[in-house]
């Protein structure tokens, strides 16, 4: 029996063997796709299993899969299939689908939150632009009372209800009047 340790490769040697840059290997490690061993000096050392995993990642990337999709796929084993090939079982594919669906749902929620925040930021910007306009016009020598009257008029105009709002307000007013008449 041989007690020989399997050969471990440095980042440069592993990158050369896989025909990628050392930065690519480090990036995949940062993404949690591969965890190489470390030497006493904290250098990355790659085993044959690591290289096989990198090969799988690179093949999946070349087929157009995202790194998030690859991460989900790497969580599941390949199983023997026809012709000596290895494939995912239907159960594994369902788990991959569920994992990817959860990521899409989380991104949709983030997008919705960003849209709400953008809308709030745009409203705040509109208010600040009006404030800035007032200050600049005051600095240019315009009359403060006239500018304030203009701002009040614009504020009242923005608060003027649309026909739909008027209808809703009228309905609420009628309901309030009826409640008052009934002593509620």
UniProtKB/TrEMBL annotation:
Please give the residue ranges the record annotates as the region Disordered. 150-184
Domain HTH merR-type: where?
8-76
Question: What highest taxon heads this organism's lineage?
Answer: Bacteria
> Has keyword Ubl conjugation?
no
Q: Which residues form a coiled coil?
A: 90-138
Q: Which InterPro entries match?
A: DNA-bd_dom_put_sf, MerR-type_HTH_dom, MerR_fam
Report keywords, A-Z.
Answer: Coiled coil, DNA-binding
PANTHER family annotated for this entry? HTH-TYPE TRANSCRIPTIONAL ACTIVATOR MTA, REDOX-CYCLING DRUG-SENSING TRANSCRIPTIONAL ACTIVATOR SOXR
This chain belongs to which protein, by name?
MerR family transcriptional regulator
